[in-house]
Amino acid sequence: MTEDLNRQSLLKFLDAFYAGDAETATACCDEAIDSITYAPIELFPHLGHKHGNGWVTEAIRTQQQRYSSRKYDLKFMAVDGDKIATMQFLSLRKHDDDRVVHLESAEFFTFRAGLILMHRSFFDSFDFVQQLLGRDLTDSFAASVRDTLRR
């Protein structure tokens, strides 16, 4: 029964988050939520380690400023008591050039009393940056790494 409650709470959170409904998304989170999105904060200052449910509203607002549409497709969900792991395919349409960028995200949630208490998120930030810039950085990055390794 707890697993069903947590599953429904997470689905409600994801639906609200990507719909831009900060009030509903925040209501799915414990006030003391601890969130870490593993990405370089020099490139993504709105990510990284966040504490308290205010980050939900901040994250939604930041994404809405950058993207005209945000969609998620839940590819996988595993529930084990108060822990849920997901794999999502995200599509974000950029405001400035109307280009759609895609990324896969792995997210891990821990619940307490039906609310999200901990959130951890991983995505390929290198690929995402290439999509945002609209160009392949692999060759220049690989050359830079090769030069550094020769020293």
Structural write-up:
The protein has 151 residues and is of the alpha+beta class. It has one domain (2-150): Nuclear Transport Factor 2, Chain: A (Roll). The chain contains five helices and six strands, in the order H-H-E-E-H-E-E-E-E-H-H. The protein has helices at residues 2-19, 22-27, 54-66, 125-133, 138-150, and strands at 29-38, 48-51, 67-80, 83-94, 100-112, 115-123. A six-stranded mixed β-sheet has the order 2-1-6-5-4-3. Strand 4 and strand 5 (100-112) form a beta hairpin. The N and C termini lie far apart (58 Å). The relative contact order is 0.16. The mean pLDDT is 91.
Descriptive key words:
six-stranded mixed β-sheet; Nuclear Transport Factor 2, Chain: A; 41% strand; globular; alpha+beta
Helicity level? 25-40%
Q: What's the shape?
A: globular
User: What string, H for helix and E for strand, traces the elements in order?
Assistant: HHEEHEEEEHH
* CATH architecture field: Roll
Q: With helices defined by DSSP (H or I, 4 residues minimum), what is the helix count?
A: 5
Highest-level CATH class? Alpha Beta
Indicate how many domains the architecture comprises.
1
Low-pLDDT runs of 5+ residues are: none
Q: How would you write the strand order of the largest sheet? A: 2-1-6-5-4-3
How large is the radius of gyration?
A: 17 Å
CATH topology description: Nuclear Transport Factor 2, Chain: A
What percent of residues are in strands?
A: 35-45%
